[in-house]
């Protein structure tokens, strides 16, 4: 899917949710624009002595509910349309989850795979210097997204603190635990998805025994590992190079080692290489797209054979595809609910750092479960009240919550 199509499909779901909820036209108009976009170009010193100009941005969509919140995505295919649409999803996600945040997203256009570690550090530090005027602990709190590790977040924290001249742990989340990070942030998206999936299983009485997972990074790798430990059968996973399949279930720890050694999941012992397309069309109980947006559209929705789709990536299923899947009795657990665990635990990290008192892993896990179950209930209730599928219900609840906050501010 092209990024302009992802942007358009995000506007479509905002528009149709407003219509369904009977929300006044002016709020639809407001929500169809980001409040602010900062585009920056900054020089980075390369190891060979030259400089390279890096283009990056921060899109801030809506802050009626609180400070803007959202991750930073790094990659050569990052675009303004993509980051803007992702900032809109963040506003809706935070509102649905009941967090006191608005939505934003950052993007750095650079090929992370072609940078040395020192160059990557300079790119990350330069980004914070460049967007410094628009971030702050009660203004906009960044976090990780694709290709941004806790180590990179640590460099960004350090750069911000050098600029302001004092410690400020609540400026960014997803930090290494030894640097004010919170226990469980790296597995938070996966656990949040599992908590929601268990609720869906309970209500819809569906099977969740076999899994195909697209993406084997922070989100896809974590959920594959957790499911493997729980004794579930992860039969297929993929990364940007392609995928692997084993009907009896993949040995995930061994596959992680293989990926670390070779840079790819392909070529793994006792598994057959497959394409990303084949993975999406696999006959499994749960398909979990955990990589990129726009992978299930009207063009391939009728080829999906999974019984349910756990949308761990942002925007993997567009609105038209969700309708086709719904008509085919395939349950779509929408992204703004399924992957909400990341920002929920980021919120706990922010609260921990503002309070200056560390949370235990058990407290993180129990609170995450509560928030995810509550959000699921609100989606399930809206789904019954409005007689719509979970996908539409989730967007509707999130948007209604933002609009209520705007009204309370007399916007
Ligand atoms: N990290 C977070 O806190 C959150 C992330 N998300 C969303 O989850 C998704 C994954 O993020 P995250 O795991 O953090 O990112 P990572 O960078 O850690 O991992 C991304 C994974 O996706 C793979 N990938 C990239 N492009 C493709 C492609 N075209 N086809 C198949 N696989 C591909 C990568 O392959 P390779 O290893 O070969 O590079 C990698 O395995 C994104 O949509 C993100 O926005 C949502 C909520 C929070
Ligand atoms: O943890 C956060 O603050 C945001 C994570 C994120 O970017 C997302 O949920 O898409």
From TrEMBL:
One of its GO terms (molecular function) is nucleotide binding. It comes from the Archaea. Keywords: NAD, Nucleotide-binding, Oxidoreductase. The keyword Calcium does not apply. NAD(+) binds at residue 218. Residues 182-410 form the Glutamate/phenylalanine/leucine/valine/L-tryptophan dehydrogenase C-terminal domain. GO terms for biological process: L-glutamate catabolic process. The record marks 145 as: Important for catalysis. Signal peptide: none annotated. Substrate binds at residues 69, 93, 346. SMART domains: ELFV_dehydrog. InterPro entries: Aminoacid_DH-like_N_sf, Glu/Leu/Phe/Val/Trp_DH, Glu/Leu/Phe/Val/Trp_DH_C, Glu/Leu/Phe/Val/Trp_DH_dimer, Glu_DH, NAD(P)-bd_dom_sf, NAD_bind_Glu_DH. Pfam families: ELFV_dehydrog (PF00208), ELFV_dehydrog_N (PF02812). The active site is at residue 105. Belongs to the Glu/Leu/Phe/Val dehydrogenases family. Homohexamer. This is Glutamate dehydrogenase. It comes from Methanocella paludicola (strain DSM 17711 / JCM 13418 / NBRC 101707 / SANAE).
